[in-house]
Specification:
By secondary structure, the chain is an alpha/beta fold. The chain has a single domain, classed as TIM Barrel, CATH 3.20.20.20. The protein is 44% helix and 13% strand. It has ten helices and eight strands. The chain has an eight-stranded parallel sheet. Strand 1 (3-9), helix 1 and strand 2 (41-45) form a beta-alpha-beta unit. The longest helix has 18 residues, at 58-75. The mean pLDDT is 92.
């Protein structure tokens, strides 16, 4: 059964919807709309991590997140995830009501593990690297995830807190990105819930030769495949369309595909 994680970027420069939800009222309205459409989790990000992104400081990141979190705390009926690789931001967000930390860096911040361990929140460990290794096979990517998970477990994070993400679109060739989708079951065999984030990404644009705004059908194809492979979470921009596809697939399978 698969849950839908709806993306809410409160940034000026995200690759797909940068600047769209910087205005507080618009961001909260979109969050409410995603919940109504079927999002079981909201993933809020204050810094773009698109290829070639320009890093910002933790204070600027928090200045974008804090107002939205304050409003969502009073209206959201689903868990709030924070897309950040900074421990200080994670700690502030948890205090403000977030219950999931979605970390694209694989816990590179030395204080992140402590924050997650002490708070008991869920933690998304995503595969990423400082450089692309074109010859690295899918087995090598899975092994790097296994080693990273072992590292943070040794530091005290409980296995029940963990979610793993193969990191499609991060430090990978097109072939490696496709392999991560195709062999998503390899990550499930590690024994933790799996999150797949492919929505509108370049891996889809490269296959279909389409710009960001025209990648809905390609995104839905990756989600449908993920559902059939038993992936636990899919991170998407287009919640309404994804939820409808899930309901149809549920009817075909005559088995529940979980959504709110």
């Amino acid at each position: 059964m698969t849950e839908i994680m709806g993306i809410l970027n409160v940034t000026p420069d995200s690759f797909s919807d940068g600047g769209t939800y910087q205005i507080l009222e618009r961001a909260v309205a979109h969050a409410s709309e995603m919940i109504e459409d079927g999002a079981a989790i909201l993933d809020v990000g204050g810094e773009s991590t698109r290829p070639g992104f320009t890093p910002i400081g933790p204070e600027e990141e928090w200045s974008r997140l804090a107002p939205v979190l304050k409003e969502l705390a009073g209206v959201s009926t689903v868990p709030i995830s924070i897309d950040t690789y900074r421990a200080v931001t994670a700690a502030r967000a948890i205090e403000a009501g977030a219950s999931i930390i979605n970390d694209i860096s694989g816990a590179k911040d030395p204080d992140m593990v402590r924050v997650v361990r002490e708070s008991g929140v869920k933690y998304v460990f995503m595969h990423n690297r400082t450089n692309i290794a074109p010859s690295l096979p899918i087995a090598g990517i899975v092994e790097e995830v296994r080693q990273g998970v072992a590292r943070i477990l040794d530091a005290g994070i409980h296995p029940r807190q963990l979610i793993v993400d193969p990191g499609v679109g991060f430090a990978k060739t097109q072939a490696q990105n496709m392999a991560c989708i195709r062999h998503i079951d390899h990550f499930r065999k590690l024994g933790y819930p799996v999150l797949l984030g492919t929505s509108r990404k370049r891996v889809i644009g490269n296959v279909l030769n389409l710009p960001v705004e025209a990648r809905l059908e390609g995104s839905l194809a990756t989600v449908a495949y993920a559902l059939l492979q038993g992936v636990d979470f899919v991170r998407v921009h287009d919640v309404r369309e994804t939820a409808r596809m899930c309901r149809m697939l549920e009817a075909i399978l005559d088995a529940p595909v979980r959504h709110s």
